[in-house]
Amino acid sequence: MDEASANPPGSRRNEDIALDLMRFVAMTTGYGRTSSSGVGFQGSGAASKPEDYANHLLELYGRCLQAVQQKK
Q1: Cα–Cα distances in Å, from 17 out to 27, 55, 56?
Q2: CA–CA separation, 47 vs 59, rounded Å?
Q3: What distance lies between CA 56 and its chain's CA centroid?
Q4: Cα(52)–Cα(71) distance, rounded to whole angstroms?
Q5: Which residues are CB-contacts of 18 (< 8 A; sequence separation ≥ 6)?
Q6: Which of 45, 49, 7, 11 is closest to 25 using CA atoms?
Q7: According to DSSP H, which parts of the chain are helical?
Q8: Pairs from 44-53 (Cβ < 8 Å, separation ≥ 24)
């Protein structure tokens, strides 16, 4: 509860914003997917195993977090 009161109403943590950004990018582009059912950038980021897919998403999250932190 203390953590929620530390942030003013309407503000969000960088981690939450980066997670939403990662979800958006991953869902709209099919980033790291093993199948080719996504839209947009396909081919270069395709993962062959679930572990590779998880690694792609973690890398994407790190890039999104870095972008959000630089923006503020």
Answers
A1: 15, 20, 18
A2: 13
A3: 10
A4: 29
A5: 61, 64, 65, 67, 68
A6: 45
A7: 2-6, 14-29, 50-71
A8: none
Q: Give the whole-angstrom CA distance, residue 21 versus residue 68.
A: 9
Structural tokens at position 36? 């080719």
Q: d(Cα 4, Cα 67) in Å, to the nearest integer? A: 24
- Average pLDDT in the 26-43 region? 66
pTM over 0.70: no
Inform me whether the pLDDT recorded for 44 exceeds 70. no
How many CA atoms, within 13 angstroms, populate the side-chain half-sphere of residue 32?
18
Q: Return the structure tokens found at 39.
A: 């839209």
